[in-house]
Description:
Number of strands: 2
Order of helices and strands: EHEHHHHH
Oligomer: single chain
Amino acid sequence: MAAGCNTLVSAVGGPDELIEDGVNGLKVPPGDADAIKEAFEKLAGNRTLMNEIGMRNRKTGLSNSWRKTAHKLRDLIVRVTPKKKSNFCRVIDRIILDRIQSYKINLLVQY
Length: 111
C-alpha cells in the first residue's frame, strides 16, 4: 500500500477485511478468473479510479509504519500477557527497538 499500488484481492480471509471494494482496492470472488480479468480491465479503463485508489493506499501505508505496527502489537501482548511474563515483553521491546527490519520481514512472512 505504501508504494501507492492498487490492490486486487479475493473476497476471503484477511485481505477481504482490509480492502473496501472500490475505495482502497477491488475484490473478486475466489477462483473466478473472469472476475479477475474484469477487475484489471476496470482499473486499466479508469485512470481516475486507479489514481485515487493508489493515492489512498499510499496515504494509508505511510501512516501505518512498521515501527507503529510493531509497537501496537507489543502493547496488545502486554495487555493480554500476565505480569510474570514481563521477560517476554522485554524480548519484544528488543525486537522492536534493535531489529525492526528483520521484524518487518517476519511479519510479512507470517501474514
